[in-house]
Structure formats: structure tokens, C-alpha cells
Write a structure and sequence with these properties.
Blueprint lengths: L1 E5 L2 E3 L5 E8 L5 E9 L6 E7 L4 E3 L7 E6 L4 E6 L8 E9 L4 E3 L3 E5 L2
Parallel strand pairs: 2-11
Antiparallel strand pairs: 1-3, 3-8, 4-5, 4-9, 5-6, 7-8, 9-10, 9-11
Length: 115
């Protein structure tokens, strides 16, 4: 399983970005896809997750602003981020867990929220 994250960039406070995580390889084995983020000097933290059945979960810090979704036809998971603020600045990583509970990581994509 390979993960390719994309969509990061520079955005002004209050703006929006959509991140993508394209899953290739044995994607049918994936049961959960998760977005994490890591701010400078901080530990990596959970942001949002979506299961193969479509159940979603969010951290309190992004609930109501971020939406995670999946397009099964494209084997891609999206993270729509709205009302961004400086505290959302981080490297965002996608992670996938398969039916054997093996975790896969994609490379990070940098999101910078600044005026």
C-alpha cells in the first residue's frame, strides 16, 4: 500500500484548502484512513479519520471546520479544511490501517496559514 498526500500550501487566515490522500496498491485492505498533523516542535496529533464504512471522527480542535471524506472509485481520501487559522499550520500526514492492523504512512504535505 502506498499513500500520496497533496494539496498543501500557503493560505490566509479564514481561508480553505483541500488535502488529498491517494491510496494505491492493495487499497481494498484498508479499513481506516487517518489524517494527522505535526506543528513545528510539537508531537504528531490526530486530526480526523474515516472508515471503509464511512464513519468519521474528528479532533475537537477541527470539529465543525474540517470534513474528511472518501471517494472509493478514486481510492482517495480528502480533508476539506475551512476557516483556517494559524494554529492549523503544520505538516499534514495521511495514514492508513489495513485489516491486519498494519499502518502505512504517506509523505507529509505542508499547510501554512499566514497573512
Amino acid at each position: 500500500v502506498q499513500l500520496q498526500a497533496s494539496g498543501g500550501g500557503l493560505v490566509q487566515p479564514g481561508g480553505s484548502l483541500r488535502l488529498s490522500c491517494a491510496v494505491s496498491g492493495s487499497s481494498f485492505r484498508i479499513v481506516t484512513t487517518i489524517w494527522y498533523r505535526q506543528a513545528p516542535g510539537m508531537q504528531r496529533k490526530f486530526v480526523a479519520s474515516v472508515t471503509s464504512g464511512g464513519s468519521t471522527n474528528y479532533s475537537d480542535s477541527v470539529k465543525g471546520r474540517f470534513t474528511i471524506s472518501r471517494d472509493n472509485a478514486k481510492n482517495t481520501v480528502y480533508l476539506q479544511m475551512n476557516s483556517l487559522n494559524s494554529e492549523d499550520t503544520a505538516v499534514y500526514y495521511c495514514n492508513a490501517v489495513d485489516s491486519s492492523w498494519h499502518a502505512y504512512w504517506g509523505q507529509g504535505t505542508l499547510v501554512t496559514v499566514s497573512s
